[in-house]
Write a structure and sequence with these properties.
Length: 222
């Protein structure tokens, strides 16, 4: 069954999962229980995994969300692979979920298998235009060094973004999360661990995706 056709069932499953998480049941076991109860396929289970959270947890993350339009001139840290992959999935019309915590996430599970493609430069240019429009301050971009072509991605990011007048330093880091947690300004990511660890977060990919009506985002009613 297509995701759109299955949406009423998915929303019912999301309500059940939210109920269990709100009462402190283990996340993994709850996902398995609900997924089996509704006989959900892999993508549907991933939508729940990436999109549904305990209400208190979701509210705490939403409180950290900042809009780029309110951060003119401020320095930003950017979770390179996280932002890039989310937007590439959007360009490829892969499923996206508007999560309970206010962030948009892909469910493509392509992180470890990611390779630069014809969409990569399109995404980098899209990001450059959006960041330049909002006149942000210095950008510190970190890619995951263990992933293939990370150094090339950092080089290409610097080249494209600097051409738009942005102040940017991009690098492949062994542990990008360590660099981003220590950023003094807001960080751009939808990674839950980083959101929980940092006081101010921008859903950079999500802001761009919300402007594109052609990119279908699945809302599970959180």
């Amino acid at each position: 069954m297509a995701i759109k056709q299955a949406l009423p069932l998915l929303k019912e499953a999301a309500r059940d999962l939210r109920h269990l998480l709100a009462r402190g049941y283990p996340r993994g076991a709850s996902l398995t229980l609900v997924g089996n109860r509704y006989n959900l396929h892999h993508t549907a289970r991933q939508l729940l995994h990436r999109g549904v959270f305990a209400p208190a947890e979701a509210a705490a993350r939403r409180a950290k969300l900042r809009l780029l339009k309110d951060l003119t001139g401020q320095p930003l840290g950017v979770d390179g692979h996280n932002v890039l992959i989310t937007l590439e999935c959007a360009l490829r019309r892969l499923p996206l979920v508007a999560a309970d915590d206010g962030f948009i996430r892909d469910v493509g599970q392509v992180s470890r298998a990611f390779r630069p493609s014809t969409e990569t430069d399109k995404v980098l240019n899209l990001l450059a235009a959006y960041l330049a429009k909002h006149q942000v301050g210095r950008l510190s971009v970190f890619y995951d060094a263990p992933l293939s072509f990370s150094g090339e991605l950092a080089r290409r990011t610097t080249e494209i973004w600097a051409a738009r007048g942005l102040l940017v330093a991009a690098a492949a880091a062994p542990v990008p999360e360590r660099e981003l947690v220590n950023c003094k300004g807001p960080i751009c990511t939808s990674d839950t661990g980083l959101i929980d660890a940092h006081p101010e977060v921008v859903d950079l990919a999500g802001e761009i995706i919300r402007q594109e009506q052609a990119w279908q985002v699945i809302d599970l009613g959180g």
